[in-house]
Specification:
367 residues; Rossmann fold; 2 domains; seven-stranded mixed sheet; 13 strands
Length: 367
Amino acid sequence: MGLPVISLVGRPNVGKSTLFNRLSKSRQALVSDFEGLTRDRQYTEVLLDDDSETFVTIIDTGGLTNEVNEIDSGIQGQVLNALEESDIIYFIVSARDGVIGLDREIGAQLRRLKKKIVLVCNKAEGLDLSLAAEFYELGLGEPILIAAEHGQGIEELIDHTLPLLPQVTDDEESDEDVEGIAVAVLGRPNVGKSTLINRILGEERVLAIDLPGTTRDSIYIPFEREGQKYTLIDTAGIRRKRSTHEKIEKFSIIKAIDALEKSHVVILVLDAREGVTEQDATLLGMIADKGRALMIAINKWDGLDEYQKSEVKRKLEVKLSFVNYASVHYISALHGSGVGKLFAPIQKAFQSAGERHPTSLLNKILE
């Protein structure tokens, strides 16, 4: 498994982003971070504790949803997905405001997740500590009092968190050793990642389709082609070929981060009919920030007529001009056209792995 994950959740204006920035900057050991191209930072890896050398991934769920919708619906969509994949959830409330209705709604939803939850009572500076007693009604245990803006209570919060983190054994770490060229297949839900992975593995006669893996963990699948060893990193979850009804796939940023950490080459799958979307742009930003060798597979190509193909190519040339180091391949994962031709470019991309491209350039993709 990857690094332990801590998600920050709470209604708007309780200080989620302030705490996120405090945790990431105050540790003085930022490993890496990813920028949402149209939002504030959402994910960062930090050294949480110097003595134990404990690294974690922190997610600010406030950047994952529209705040208006959050007020209306509480926890939803990508926020819920992130929380389900978290090891620990920081539920942030405001000591100044006291408990309000949306706090109760979010708290009730969190209890149903059956996760380790830390109730963080922010903006507690200068207030009578007895006021925090009302937060016990949320049923989430003792509130940890902090003032994220001023750095007060952060050490106490970390000390409370450390015993709650999962212990990673040597066996778990060795399970993710990769053989040969590690290839991660990334993309938005329903662009054809699973179909492409099944097509690649089917061509290589890999029988072990049902491999272990949790909801959160990526799956590492070793195979060999023409004497070259590969490890395919699957973030979508292998689907049985005989299955006619696939479950709706959730986008998992945790799996994407995990796959990027382990990969040499990334195949980003795009839907030819939809072009480059904002979520595609976010993935491109993460890939470029990590300096991974990149290939772009334009899937469902066979479903377009000649005029549509011409238009798609024209638009992609503009949208992807800043990643001209990436090879672009037009494929049909369902019917197999173009899939076999991916292997030579994978090896070529592996040779050039390690190039780094500034994330700031990626803003061009949304222009």
